[in-house]
Amino acid sequence: MTLSSGKGNNLMDPRLADLIKLLDLERLEVDLFRGESRDIGSPQVFGGQVLGQALTAATATVEGRTVHSLHAYFLRRGDFSAPIVYQVDRSLDGHSFCNRRVVAIQHGSPIFNMAASFQIPEEGFEHQTPMPAVPPPESLPDASRPPPELLERLPQAVRRFLERPRPFEFRLVQPMESLAAGVATPARQVWFRAVDALPADEGLHRRLLAYLSDYFLLDTATLPHGKSSFSGALVMASIDHAMWFHRPLRVDDWLLYAVESPSASGARGFARAGVYARDGRLVASTAQEGLVRLRRTGQP
After folding, report:
1. The whole model's pTM is what?
2. Residue 263 annotated to the active site
3. Which of 98, 113, 142, 257 shows its CA 20 to 30 Å from the CA of 189?
């Protein structure tokens, strides 16, 4: 199975072409797939990678329907050095909807599971919350790499993550320096888009958005507490993740990620977000809960 670019991956920006290749999977059996991993500077396999690959596996078993929601749990850390096997269970094939359950397996144990629902396109009622009033992306500086003066103050492990080239560009409504400086309101807005043009494949755009959706959510839950995720003082890990796809979208045009964290308790942070197209359409929603714990003395 191959996700091909309309202009050929060899002509695409290599960062984006590599991500598309990463989200592609080798089919081992009818409902069994295998994927590789990339080290993007995080302590374990990036959660968005497993989300995107699991959605690729589920989509490969569905015809004539588009994913509209997914609900996932991160169970164990992923190992960069070993392949991940994705096993798909065809839970339901109904008239309008079908449901798939995916288990990601590594070293003989499940590291992740996900349920995804797919629907035949239908017409129905339409309403949405309005997009927040924010500056346009062209008026904001490129935040794909933090400023050097901020990088110098960060722990080496954090710098390693932030300095890696990425297949997306970001424009932050709230500057990174202000978010890293101390206590802030638990809300942020980020413009993002892919670094190159993509083919008009709705499934591909939704898989890429699933990959990207693991950015920014859990960090937002730390903002009111004066302990930035950049400081190295926190142990953080995603526990669960949910997405709902409302309308057609393109990740190679600017999208606004409007994130808020309504609660943190029990060493867990919760965040939710709306994803808005440039024209104001709400194209997707996300929610995530994760571990947010102060690092104990001597803890790696």
Report:
1. 0.90
2. no
3. 113
